[in-house]
């Protein structure tokens, strides 16, 4: 049913829950599983190139670890995961990347936001759902997982 | 009463006793810390935020610089100029020498001449004030361009490398103009020129020697050596009524190879600059902006911004076409080369410090400079971003291009439609 499954992973509990779900589906359907992480907040209007490089190095290091963790989770479900890191606005990049790799299912983690935040700017998952050419599955992390991930990981991108 | 004490007196306590160097430094570093916090939270450059926080400090808290702040700010501008020069990629510069000299040279000259003429003939600024306007608006912000390129992946392509090296050439034009136009043409200037030439010739060798013999000791001898050269040549430049950023940029360009081989050295100098020196420069640049002057000079801000954009378009766009850039790529390059921040601020502050422009003209110029950091980038990203870049998933030959191999160059040419000479 699914041939290419793309999962967005940012190191949050919701993101890892999405990897669990996507890996399980990929294993069942024999689909190709790709994870994408998006580095947001690159310092624009910088004074030196070093400022930009330093930020990128930090993000690269963080998302490399996220990629390793995502692969470990996928292997636990018997699926092989490819991990790609991109830069830009998360929703925009994920939608474009889904188109690029020909994904027919996009799996996203759900992160809780305040009502004001949801009203004002929405969530990445909402935006991806609105613009994605592929079907979108939004996964909520179980509460106990959430607490565990919060203890184990830092979440620099969580709002 | 000293403005810093006045700022602190809002708490209703007689704080005259706090009119000392530590308390004043604490206020400035406090603002620098605030700027860092905001910059990290909102994803804007710390330099830009420091200017804006400085505007708040100058106009609301009424803080002002003094002699030692002026020194720290001055050395901060010298150091950031040196770092900017040292960030050039020597290999790319050699490879794209001809097109980057052409595009960068024109990219400097047309806005320089255009803004100079416009300020003199239309705004009726006096001759030297008009020259400062020309220099301040001739710049291209390499770092702003680079940030956008990293985001789009263009920094790894031939097109991106060409644009970046052209930006360095453009900024070289700016610092040369700043160092030459206002200098006293006498024996001191000749002495300064000869000393700079000798240091430039010996710097790569001598810096490598210092690194080889003394290494990265705790006492940081290699950093002190760089500071020594910058301060000594800065002293000579000041004596000759030139500008210390001129030798700093040239030294940076010449030392770039050493810095590429030894990133730790760059990291240590950058750490010193960004933690303690450049905040004083950018905050000071902001404190000197008079908001009322910006409001009353809004017309001048708009037209000078338009002059810079139009002049960059007239100069750079045909040059990009001549070097086989087409469509969105050409427009994107032109807009990227219309950005400016650090050198524009340095030039305007040089003009104010030396009495070539007044606070009102300074406020107008720095506002235009800040706008040129923001507006062209936003337009370029929104309307002219070349979509057919190299980041195609699964195409190994193209992805190999991201590593900078020969194959990468060929792949880049195929995708970008641009061929290096």
Q: Estimate what percentage of residues of chain A fall within beta strands.
A: 15-25%
Roughly how many Å apart are the termini of chain A?
A: 34 Å
Shape of chain A: globular
Radius of gyration of chain A: 15 Å
Poorly predicted sequence stretches spanning 5 or more consecutive residues of chain B: 388-421
The count of DSSP E runs of length 2 or more, i.e. the number of strands of chain A, is 5
Number of helices of chain B: 20
Tell me the series of helices and strands of chain B, N- to C-terminal. Answer: HHHHHHHHHHHHHHHHHHHH
User: Could you tell me the mean pLDDT of chain B?
Assistant: 85
- In the predicted model, the low-confidence regions of chain A spanning at least 5 consecutive residues are 153-159
The largest sheet of chain A, given as strand count, sense and whether it forms a barrel, is: 5 strands, parallel
How would you describe the overall organization of this protein?
The complex is a heterodimer of chains A (159) and B (421). With 159 residues, chain A is α/β, with parallel strands linked by helices. Chain A has helices spanning 13-29, 49-76, 90-101, 115-120, 124-131, 143-152, and strands spanning 4-8, 32-39, 81-87, 105-110, 135-140. Chain A has a five-stranded parallel β-sheet with strand order 3-2-1-4-5, with helices on both faces. In chain A, strand 1, helix 1 and strand 2 (32-39) form a beta-alpha-beta unit. The longest helix of chain A is centred in the middle third of the chain and has 28 residues, at 49-76. The radius of gyration of chain A is 15 Å and the shape is globular. Chain B is mostly helical and 421 residues long. Helices cover 76% and strands 0% of the residues of chain B. In chain B, helix 7 packs antiparallel against helix 9 (158-181), helix 9 runs antiparallel to helix 12 (245-261) and helix 10 (187-214) packs parallel to helix 12 (245-261). The chains are: A alpha/beta (159), B mainly alpha (421). At the A-B interface, helix 2, strand 3 and helix 3 of A face helix 3, helix 4, helix 8, helix 13 and helix 18 of B.
